[in-house]
């Protein structure tokens, strides 16, 4: 990794949580080794999630949410990417340790994953029962009979009617919402301490989306699983998240407890994002639509990457990257205007 990444990762711990959370990501940066040269797509991202907590990662398409998750899970192709971090720890274990041993043992077992499109994650040539049972046999070493019984119980738990019959169906016989329920069942099969859901509902219609979020919330209450939730649905974020991390062009621009974020969004991008969502149209601070376009990862910008689109831009924004600064309890924003300076226009 180049010097700039090393410099950034050498800075202090920004997570602000003293005891060991379930997942702690500290100073994560990711570059892709593209043709013209390395392109940074994630810069100095830090967050932590405790038991039973939900942290939501939000931001426009392409801001680096999925790459962050893929890097944490070691799913990026090593030849084409470079990852640097002060720490990525799951239950205190270093997920970036050489050899990937810690990662292999937690993926699918300690950490369950739900992705956007269930059909691409499910194997169309195996029944859903076989697929869930495979996870159970692999990770928990259950025998065939025990795995099948547990798979039925899991399908029942994600509210699939007549689970004992449906278990022998192939994925194509399930609707999109049901397939996502199967994915949730597989993700929860080994009672993971952390569930990562990356856009779990975007492929589904609105009523089914609400059902899936309800299900996730219920299961989380029962299991105390920590949840890292990536979604464009700010209504779901408002209902589910304890903390929100807002990303813009690969960087965290704001982090806040949920209640505070919707009442007192600080970063102009967050204000714009909330304004851009139909749920928050009544917000007096809305700035819809956010003018301009998201910078591409290769675009050279010396200062704040939101500066070209920001209605409050000042000179400094174009030359210096604003650091995340505390503006309230557990509330940080990376903006030269934060905390709002009464002398500024
Ligand atoms: N394998 C790759 N090689 C090169 N660039 C990549 C690769 N994967 C992702 N990127 C780039 O990294 C940036 C972040 O992508 P990412 O998929 O994390 O966005 P996202 O925030 O998840 O967006 P969305 O909301 O659309 O899912 C994008 O500019 C994307 O084009
Ligand atoms: Mg994504």
Automatic annotation (TrEMBL):
Example GO molecular function: ATP hydrolysis activity
Single Gene Ontology BP annotation: peptide transport
Record membrane topology: Peripheral membrane protein
Keyword Chaperone attributed: no
Keyword presence, Transferase: no
ABC transporter domain: residues covered: 23-274
InterPro entries: AAA+_ATPase, ABC_Ni/Peptide_Import, ABC_transporter-like_ATP-bd, ABC_transporter-like_CS, Oligopep_ABC_C, P-loop_NTPase
GO cellular component, one term: plasma membrane
CDD domains tied to this protein: ABC_NikE_OppD_transporters
Alphabetical UniProt keywords: ATP-binding, Cell membrane, Membrane, Nucleotide-binding, Transport
Top-level taxon of origin: Bacteria
Signal peptide feature range: none
Pfam family, one: oligo_HPY
Cellular compartments annotated: Cell inner membrane
Family according to the record: Belongs to the ABC transporter superfamily.
The protein's name in its UniProt record: Peptide/nickel transport system ATP-binding protein
Source taxonomy: Bacteria, Pseudomonadati, Pseudomonadota, Alphaproteobacteria, Hyphomicrobiales
């Amino acid at each position: 990794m180049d010097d700039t990444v090393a410099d950034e990762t050498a800075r202090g711990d920004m997570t602000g949580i003293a005891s060991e959370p379930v997942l702690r990501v500290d100073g994560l940066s990711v570059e892709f080794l593209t043709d013209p040269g390395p392109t940074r797509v994630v810069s100095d991202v830090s967050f932590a999630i405790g038991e039973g907590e939900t942290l939501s990662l939000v931001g426009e398409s392409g801001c680096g949410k999925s790459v962050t998750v893929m890097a944490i899970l070691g799913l990026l192709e090593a030849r084409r990417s470079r990852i640097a971090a002060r720490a990525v720890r799951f239950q205190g274990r270093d997920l970036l340790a050489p050899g990937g041993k810690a990662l292999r043992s937690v993926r699918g077992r300690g950490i369950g994953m739900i992705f956007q499109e269930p059909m691409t994650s499910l194997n169309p040539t195996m029944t859903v029962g076989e697929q869930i049972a495979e996870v159970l046999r692999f990770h928990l070493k259950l025998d065939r009979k025990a795995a099948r019984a547990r798979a039925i119980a899991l399908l029942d738990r994600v509210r699939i009617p007549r689970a004992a019959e449906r278990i022998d169906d192939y994925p194509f016989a399930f609707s999109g919402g049901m397939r996502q329920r199967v994915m949730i069942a597989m993700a929860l099969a080994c009672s993971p301490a952390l569930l990562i859901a990356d856009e779990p509902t975007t492929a589904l219609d609105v009523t089914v989306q609400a059902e899936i979020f309800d299900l996730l919330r219920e299961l989380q209450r029962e299991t105390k699983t920590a949840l890292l939730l990536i979604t464009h649905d700010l209504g779901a974020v408002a209902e589910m998240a304890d903390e929100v991390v807002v990303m813009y062009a690969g960087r965290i621009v704001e982090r806040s407890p949920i209640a505070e974020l919707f009442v007192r969004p600080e970063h102009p991008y967050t204000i714009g994002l909330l304004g851009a969502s139909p749920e928050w149209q009544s917000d007096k601070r809305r700035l819809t639509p956010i003018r301009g376009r998201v910078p591409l990862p290769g675009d050279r910008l010396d200062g704040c990457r939101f500066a070209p689109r920001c209605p409050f831009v000042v000179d400094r924004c174009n030359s210096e990257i604003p650091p995340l600064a505390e503006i309230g309890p557990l509330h940080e924003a990376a903006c030269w205007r934060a905390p709002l300076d009464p002398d500024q226009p």
